[in-house]
Amino acid sequence: MGDSTCDLSDEIIEKYNIGIAPLTININSKEYRDRVDIKSAEFFEMMGKLEENPTTSMPNPAEYLNIIKDAMENDYTEFLCICMSSGTSGTYQSAEVAKEIFYEEHPESSIKIHVVDSKSMSHGSGWLILKSALLREQGFSFEELVDFSETYKINVKHFLCVDDLNHLIRSGRLTNASALIGRILKIKPIMSMRNGKGAIVAKERGLNGVLNHYVKEFNKRNDWEITDFIIIGYTSEKDIADRLMDKIRQETDFKGEIYIMQMGVAVGTHVGLRAVSMYFIEKGHRRDGLLLNELSGITEMKNGFLNKFMSK
């Protein structure tokens, strides 16, 4: 189970029988359930013409309870629910409330329910959900899926670049420090997750610089034993995601599956048009930040100069 911000494709959700609790989006004073009443392509087509900024609200506990009750009728007895970061939404808390209500109504039940705070946004929680589905298919137990998700959730590496930071600033999806930095920067900022919220970790000139940063950091950070697939996300421009996939194939040794999936309406409300993201598992829990990347860039330039100087 998950919420609609996991942004997994309909094909994946249907193939692995994943229950999705939809967030609600308010557009021009009208409410829509994400993935149910409105689809991504439709939303991004209208987004640039909206007079008011859309808003989102979390699924209520009844949405999760309905998924559990419907699945129980098909003899499911174990439920792993992976939610978007509690630092950016109340979806995790809502799922926990649903779990408490279920056990209050069924105190003698042997049903197992575990809720994971993924510390992730968008395809970050989606990565964990898809990996759990693949592990389940391979015969891993419920307890092993719980252990994997809780162990590796802090290692799901996010990269996200947007055209307009104002959506994220207004919605509070950025840390206060990053929001301040974002207002100052005149070039493309790259975000990742820090302590469950978005933070700016690098800045690049133009889209080529952004994609180069993604690939360079992937080569440095990727856990080659755990990352058997990568998810690339996009909002309105799939060709950007295609370019990133081509670069990964050409400039890394990664041979696994690369999924390209459009971000959903709830996430798109906060990141806007022309956004591109990337998700994989990184080794350990490596530090990432604007200052660190700036210093790294200076060091690389210095080393490049010295190498050129010494070769003459």
Short note summarizing the structure:
With 312 residues, this protein is an alpha/beta fold.
Q: What CATH architecture label of the largest domain applies?
A: 3-Layer(aba) Sandwich
Beta-strand residue fraction: 15-25%
Query: Could you state the order of secondary-structure elements as H and E?
Result: EHEEEHEHEHEHHEHHEEHEHEHEH
Describe the strand arrangement of the main beta sheet, using strand numbers. 10-9-8-13-11-12
The CATH C-level name of the largest domain is: Alpha Beta
User: Counting H and I runs of at least 4 residues, what is the number of helices?
Assistant: 12
**Major beta sheet, specifics?**
6 strands, mixed
Total number of domains: 2
Overall strand count: 13
Q: If you consult CATH, what is the topology of the largest domain?
A: Rossmann fold
Radius of gyration from the CA trace? 20 Å
Rounded average pLDDT: 89
* Euclidean distance between termini CA atoms: 61 Å
Class by SSE composition:
alpha/beta
Principal-axis shape: globular
Question: What oligomeric state is this?
Answer: single chain
Show the helix and strand layout:
Elements: E1 2-3, H1 10-15, E2 20-21, E3 24-27, E4 30-33, H2 40-47, E5 55-57, H3 61-72, E6 78-83, H4 91-105, E7 112-117, H5 123-137, H6 142-152, E8 156-161, H7 166-171, H8 176-184, E9 188-194, E10 197-204, H9 206-221, E11 229-234, H10 238-251, E12 257-262, H11 265-271, E13 276-281, H12 290-310
Parallel strand pairs: 1-2, 6-7, 11-12
Antiparallel strand pairs: 3-4, 3-5, 8-9, 8-13, 9-10, 11-13
Helix pairs in contact: 3-4, 5-6, 9-10
